[in-house]
Amino acid sequence: MKLDSKIPNGPLAEKWTNHKFNVKLVNPANKRKYNIIVVGTGLAGASAAASLAELGYNVQAFCFQDSPRRAHSIAAQGGINAAKNYQNDGDSVYRLFYDTIKGGDYRSREGNVYRLAQVSVNIIDQCVAQGVPFAREYGGLLANRSFGGAQVSRTFYARGQTGQQLLLGAYSALSRQVANGKVKLYPRTEMMDVVTIDGKAKGIVTRNLITGAIESHSGDAVLLCTGGYGNVFFLSTNAMGSNVTAAWRAHKKGAYFSNPCYTQIHPTCIPVSGDHQSKLTLMSESLRNDGRVWVPKTIPTAEKLRKKEIAPKDIKDEDRDYYLETKYPSFGNLVPRDVASRNAKYVCDEGRGVNETGEAVFLDFRDAILRDGEDAVRGKYGNLFDMYEKITGENPYKTPMKIYPAVHYTMGGLWVDYNLMTNVPGLYALGEANFSDHGANRLGASALMQGLADGYFVIPYTLGDYLASHPNGKISVDHPEFKKCEDEVKAKVQQLLTINGNKTVDHFHKKLGKIMWNYCGMARNAAGLTKAKEMIKELKKEFWSDVKVLGTGEELNLSLEKAHRVADFLELGELMVVDALHREESCGGHFRDEHQTPEGEALRDDENFAYVAAWEFAGEGKEEVLNKEELVFENVKLTQRSYK
Amino acid sequence: MNLTLKVWRQKNPSDKGGFKDYTLSGISSDMSFLEMLDVLNEDLSEKGDDPVHFDHDCREGICGMCSLYINGQPHGPTQTTTCQLHMRSFKDGDTITIEPWRASSFPIIKDLVVDRSSFDRIIQSGGYVSVNTGGVPDANEIPIPKIIADEAFDSATCIGCGACVAACKNASAMLFVSAKISQLALLPQGKVEKRGRAEKMVAQMDDEGFGACTNTGACSAECPKGIDLSNIARMNREYFAASLSTEEH
Questions:
Q1: Is residue B206 part of a domain?
Q2: Contact B31 A276 (CB under 8 A)
């Protein structure tokens, strides 16, 4: 199938404006005749559901949590980028566009990214109007800070809880539409499948997580706003419930899955403390503005630290290796995430790690506290420091934080065109669930921007274009396709409940996570990936013959919920490995040992790999088929990314 | 460390429910409380017993999904969410009692899982600024004194977990409701609708069956985000002003 990105013609700066004029509109009186299904209520889902309902569409919004306010966007800490140039420091739409393209290692679409940068300014206006309490200066105007991968201050923030405040803003807009009767909420409801009729998405089948009821919902379009798949690694900074099920089942219904191997490992997380660990906690990247990353210069000193014979403060400045500042003088501690993560791995692999496991580096605030005072540091990062102390029992005002990279975000996702529509007509993917804007690496403070851009400012325009040419035909959920889909879902539930094997769901999830982390993590190579593929195949077989899922399907059943999700992670994991194996280059978060510059940086192969890999499901047990969307660069010149 | 857990087990809303004892050994003090429960659930699952159902999601103390009434305190002995409580707060040999939130407006679904949708309905009754997407002024057109913005932020930091209700002997939701009313009443964007908002949200809170406030302050003392009691005072002011006001709202 030929993939058409539908990027409008014309100069970059005019594409979106022209497109908005050229798309078809749905008459206001007709909008109320359309039903739109929105799955997921994070930043993308809540903002889309609210905005579409405001326009007059009828919206059904689904989430697996007990309330839409709990979607994992809420946990984003650092901030949201916007090209406001309030700081007069040289920012512009073009610069945000350029930074994002470059930060993504030239593996994203110019047209999409430029639009993202354009609407970024509207997002801030919108959120402020909703009452989002962004940080402000004494003069009463909005404050900004700088963030990894950028040399301007364009990040808006609400202490270390920006995601929470933005999500609560979107949730409030959503709640208003619930009160207006334009949105019907379905909390504690998990999407189990997409229903397509004549090749078009016409609804979904869900499981009510409380009663276990399998139900159908029909609609004129289905929007998947279901987040990323980082939990394929078991340990990640994602919420425990974050999963790929909605996106994966859509994939098996024909939607292409793009660039699954592009995963982001976040450099500043609290290190793993033991086997019991259930999740990893991120410390906002904004900490790198004032914290200095270092390890001891020599292995013997690091050994003494690990054995607790010396404390960090005992190590003199000349014996410390501030390796990011030395290696990257112009960006220093603010290099993009992939660069910071990989360098942490290198110094730890050399034996210079600073905690008991040897997998941690210091993030030190000593100099910032000396320079600005403890109060100033507390003002910026107080809640993060508190959180760190609660988890580790150490006080970061007194002793440096210990950090290590962890899986955080997934740039890959469902393939979508410029309108955010997948290759299945009527099926859309927004936010982290799609692959669209971050290329092979996402810059800090850009996830919130993209989720809200998609939901507030893109889909309200582009959805109408599809609907206008598809007269609403209210499809009954008694249609045979719905019944067939329900039966398949019920059969899968029964299958999981009747295996009655010996191993728990978590057992399989942890095993999969280890395979992914070891062979498809911060650095990958052909031998490891080939091995991982076989290991995952084996694990999948074992899962379907030996998993133990207790209870029944007609009740709240946490192990059944998890079993569905882990079953999908097993399949996705294999595709990630296949994708990583086929991409014989390094770019952004995808680092292949075989492809690096003499300095150890990612070495792209633009001639052969400047494309989006869009994988097509070919049937159970069959190899997925690779489709390519060539990336066209008309405005930026592809260069070796350098942050020296 | 070795522990004895007394856990509330209840099959469904109509089941009477009761405590069940479990013993756990080899718990590390570095584990979070929920990781300790994960260990219990892995044990139970391996034995073929139904795991203990509890709500949790982000495990970073921000989503508000986790709950648990631990040894008579919502979210346990430290002023944080249950997911941020670590086992170093307990001693070897301790007996830990774990119950769900107890409030008629939070009916029990199963074991430790309760239904908090009443909170969503309160927000739906008026916890927002009535602006549509698009057509809003530039973000810097409305300067807001830093001190006001910071105060609004302090109120906005509520995670909607319901600990305030669980802590209150009357199961009052005043702290939760007042936090939202305060945030929006403090900010110029929210001032436009502040009167109607206070009336509608308070009415919805009453409809949901939450109890009255007797100013004991247990809510704020147990709030994992430290939402201040002054929010309740501000809400009362807003509500009083609204009831005296003759203008339409």
A1: yes
A2: yes
